Amino acid sequence: MPLTRRQFAALAGASLLTSHAMAQDVTQDWEAVAQAARGQTVYWHAWGGDPKINDFIAFIGDQAQARYGVTLKHVKLADTADAVARVLAERDAGQITGGAVDLIWINGDNFAAMKAQGLLHGPFAERLPNWPLVDILGKPATVTDFTLPTEGYESPWAMAQLVFEYDSARLPTPPADLAGLKAFILANPGRFTYPQPPDYLGVTFLKQVMYGVMADPAILQSPSDPAAYDAAIAPLWAFLDDIHPSLWRSAKAFPANEPALGQLLADAEIDIAFAFNPGRASAEIAAGTLPDTVRTFVLDGGTLGNASFVAIPFNAAHRAGALVIADLILDPAVQAHAQDPAVLGFQTVLNLAALTPDDRARFDALSLGVATLPPAELGPALLEPHASWVTRIAEDWVARYGTAQ
Amino acid sequence: MTGLQLQKLEIRQGDRVLVSLDVEVAPGEVLTVMGASGSGKSTLLAAVIGTLPRDFTMTGQIVLNGVDVTALPTRARKMGILFQDDVLFPHLSVGGNLGFGLPARTRNRTERIDAGLEEMGLAGFAARDPATLSGGQRARVALLRALLANPEALLLDEPFSRLDTELREQIRTLVLTHARALSLPLVLVTHDAEDARAATGPVVTPLGQAVHL
Amino acid sequence: MTPGKVATGTGTAGTGTAGGRLLRLMPGLTLWLLAVPVLAGFAGTLAPAFGFDPLSGTGPGLAAFTTLAQWPGLRAAAWLSVTSGVGSTLLALLISLGVVATLIGRPGFATVQRLLSPLLSVPHAAAALGLAFLIAPSGWTARALSPWATGWMQPPDLLILNDPAGLALTLGLVAKETPFLLLMILAALPQTDARQRMTVAASLGYGRLAGFALTVLPALYAQLRLPVYAVLAYAMTAVEMAMILGPTLPPSLSVQVVTWATEPNLAHRGTAAAAALLQVVLVVGVLGLWRMGEMGVRRLVRHAARSGWRAARVDATLQPVLLGLALTPALALAAGLAGLSVWSVAGLWSFPDAWPEDLTLATWTRAAPGLWQASITSLTLALTATLAALVLALACLEAEHRFGLNPQAWVLWLLYLPLIVPQVAFLPGLQMLALSTGAIGGWAAVAAVHGVFVLPYVFLSVSAPYRAWDDRIAVQGAALGASAARVFWRLRLPMLLTPVLTAAAVGMAVSVGQYLPTLLIGGGRVETLTTEAVALSSGGNRRVIGAYALLQMALPAIAFGIALALPRLIYAKRRGMGVV
Predict the structure, then answer these.
(1) Contact at CB, A76 and C531, closer than 8 angstroms
(2) Of B67, C73, C375, C531, which shows the fewest CB atoms inside 10 Å?
């Protein structure tokens, strides 16, 4: 059940009061964990499609080796679902210890599925030494994953917010809101598209549209009411029906996923793309794969935001090591390294106000990157809708548009 | 050395009797088997060499120099065979082909091969590629290969039919001369009356009837 | 005696030796080694399809099939699988036969053989991506022609890639299949007396193409049948090619299976399994239709032969067309690969530039560290799996020959099941087996699973030439006193060097390209070049893909190069071996 902001604040306040008392226990527990972790090899199953992320994970591995004597092995996946399937299969075969997956980069549907199946170890996140630094008040997405409370079963490591990317050399003034985007699409046929649902980013676009066209977006936070669903969702289909004929390839083909969409922008096949990482454009410019005229913008009213997490399977062979890695990811030095646009451009999950002056300085020293919007201009992060809405619109999209007529 | 004996040899396929022979071939003698195509000549040779297909049934004995070889595999029967095609091994040189037939423990292999080649009028051919030889040369190499393996009998499956008339006579004479010199019993399958005449031995059909040329 | 099937003259004495006894057991042993994982895999597909999946929430029943039937894209996806599969296989077959018919005995033939090995080594995903870059509206062709010829400052909105009719997909498939079929034809050719027959036909006044079709093809196709079936099955179940080149609304059935199987919403695992079963049924059905087509063509050939249809004048028009058709996919593949290679050293490369703005080695230096270990792993896995598969295949074939065993039809089905069932549906069952027997996460387990997928390819590459070998050679050898073993090692194997090396090269290429088996059975512990490459490719980053494609190609290219060059080297002076 989703929490209102007030309930959130109350909970957070209560936990702050007890945290001091618990701090002592945590430190002692943690020493035992660190001791057990020494010498372990942790297998972190994470998507391997971006060399920059792979390099970052390798960096974490170096830190882990230097500080804790833990070896980190990045198992590169093409799809997180492969790791989920692995843990599932192990559970089915009765393997309740010594599992092959120690740590998974996860969020959203995959997390919900694993949690529901009882495949995760936890709660562990709140017992990590760096947990107090996490900005759970300012960034509620760090403890709520697609309206599902994480309850400590996963630990955040990067904030994501949907931003739109465009090449300012070709498009001087980007649209300001959804209506403006629609006008742009209709005036420039074939220059915009979105990934094909049920892809994660494609469904995100649908959700963003829903926020823009629905009369009362607040109902998205509660489970969808079957009786009122069709009427509530009708504006979404109306919007799509209007723009589809003017989409890239006249909506007879769609890019498969986020990287494919980014590639279309780089190839100048489309003028506006979008991604979940506000720093992606700057990082790509720094890597020399996008021209330096690329900029980002958000829509008035806000865009969707969420977080990326790591979770530990119930049967992980090297649980102590995994905990160490999860904590290390929350270390301010590591977080600052991730936020550096020359490295990744990922937005931190930490509360900058809670950091020591030295750590804070690390973040202040970072340049944002030429294409990244400063936090003040990013606008509000809209909360993810309830999972029931998401499943239905994904299925309905496939039913309505899944076969080219 | 008693030669080759086909004792009450009968080969059937289903109900058909294809071969029915009870005959002796003395050392140095030639048994010529003649008949129309499909009359069982090839079946007879297959049975004698030991490669009779499974859908044929055979009764009777094959005895070579006193040894009953009926149940023995081909390699133990000590019989050589010359096909219509020379069937030289294409991946080996002429010398390689000849060496293949030489028993393993033979000493002076190269000398024996060279001597044999010289006798056949193919001096210096040991290193040649069989595919570059003429038809007559290949026939001679095939014969030499068979003889170098020290067979106790020789089977000939229309071996001269591929050669032109002039060559045919040459090779035929060569084969018969060597066989007689080594006292080998020969079974010659042919449809050419000339071959039969040159063989100067009994001429029968696969079913045992005498053929008058 | 006529050439062909004869008893080999070893009789029951063949089992007298220990080696002979072991040999007799080989077919049974191979069957067991194959049956267990294959049936486990297949059971792992059947179970979820019929609802025996504790996670999907529904009980046993046909719910999964109902969901499948209600998918609006079902008919289009199935039709796409069939048309792209049959179309590409037919085209590839015609082109490869046409090339051989046109060039056999001519100097161009050797060139063809030399070109084959690099073409065969290109990984499927890299081939697809290279082609995609070539033909896309923002691709290399468009960039090279813009803006001076076309006036485009930005790419046009043309549906060339991912077209609904699947033309791009079919072309991509043809580009990959033609070299494979050519390879199979080359391996089988020495056993068909091709040149002699063509000479006879030519002397009777037949054109080259007609002569080939009427005299060589019947004997050749008998050996080619199994590879063609494998190609057909692959074309219908191809995933990477369909994802990159094929339509998206709806995608081909095999792509949809993967989408359903990897959905976080576990309820669709059953639907994925049901779709996988449908895929199997489709493949089997199409194979049956193809078989009937074969009979029709056979009738046609006989009729044409009887009626003395010379078709001498057709040569002049058809031969250039066929050569052109053959060159097109080859050039496209090569150009696509060249494009990816340029991307691997490219800095910024925008449309409409025909060349990158600047070149950099960053991608390569970044990729280098992890590569050495991954390459070694790929190599050792490939060698082990292929060697084991080769030994088993040859042993089975030799046992079949020596003891007159005849493999029954169901044995062939078992052998080819891994090729027909989509891997994504086949592997969970296998993974379950491996997990429950504790044989997981190890290098040996991965090698064994690779073997399961390598064995069918090795078998089909080597079995037809093996069986078509002239048995009179064996008889002659036996008459000269050679034992069955000696005949095998000194006569049969050396003469079959080309097919054996070809089969080994194919096996190695198959092993190097395995992704899901290595990942799922290795549990992430076994890192090969391909697991790295596929993970990196999922980011769509052309630079990285280009670098890894070239690296992935190296190993198979060497293997194919050896397979094609070694026999020519060894038998350079043996014209009768038919390798030149």
Answers:
(1) yes
(2) B67
Structural domain count, chain A? 2
| C510-551 tens-digit pLDDT | 899 888 888 878 877 888 888 888 877 777 778 888 888 888
CB-closest option in C8, C475, C495 to B81 = C475
Is the domain of A291 the same as that of A394? yes
How long a stretch of residues is chain B?
A: 213
Q: Which residues of B touch C497 (CB under 8 A)?
A: 91
The residue segments making up the domain with residue C437 are 29-46+69-341+364-570
- Give the domain CATH number at C469: 1.10.3720.10
ipTM of the prediction? 0.88
**CA of C330 vs chain A CAs: smallest distance (Å):** 26
Instruction: Indicate whether A2 pLDDT > 50.
Output: no
In chain B, residues with a C-beta closer than 8 Å to the C-beta of C575 are 90, 129, 131-132
Contact A196 C249 (CB under 8 A): yes
Query: How many Å separate Cα C183 from the centre of its chain?
Result: 10
Is residue A335 domain-shared with residue A394, that is, in the same domain?
A: no
Residue in this structure with the two tokens 């009369």, named with its chain if needed: A215
Q: C490 CA to chain B: closest CA distance, Å?
A: 9
CATH no. for residue A390? 3.40.190.10
Closest CA to B64 of B46, B76, B81: B76
Say yes or no for a CB contact (<8 Å) between B42 and C10.
no
Q: Which residue of A has its CA nearest to C343?
A: A289
Q: What is the pTM of this model?
A: 0.79
Same domain? For A187 and A314 the reply is no
Is residue C161 within 8 Å of C135, Cβ to Cβ? yes
Which chains pack against B, by 3+ Cβ pairs within 8 A?
A: C
CB B14 within 8 A of CB B50: no
Check if the beta carbon of residue C361 is closer than 8 Å to that of residue C547.
no
Please state, in angstroms and as integers, the Cα–Cα distance from residue C114 to each residue in A299, A333, C158, C321, C577, following that order.
Answer: 57, 55, 37, 22, 18
Give residue A210's domain range.
Answer: 163-304+383-401
Whether chains C and A touch (3+ CB pairs under 8 A) is answered by: yes
Q: Is residue A375 in a domain?
A: no
Q: What is the pLDDT of residues B56-79, one digit of tens each?
A: 999 999 999 999 999 998 888 989
Q: Are residues A240 and A328 in the same domain?
A: no
| Mean of pLDDT over chain C | 84
Q: Phi first, then psi: give them for residue B194, nearest 5 degrees.
A: -60, -45
Which of B91, B130, B149 has the CB atom closest to C481's CB atom? Answer: B149
Task: Kindly list the partner chains of chain A, i.e. chains with 3 or more CB atom pairs below 8 Å.
Answer: C
Q: Which residues of B83-96 are buried (b: 16+ CB within 10 A; e: fewer)?
A: bbebbbbbbbbbbb
B–C interface: beta-carbon pairs under 8 A: 114
B161 touching C (Cβ < 8 Å): no
Q: Which of C10, C479, C571 sits opposite B91 (nearest CB)?
A: C571
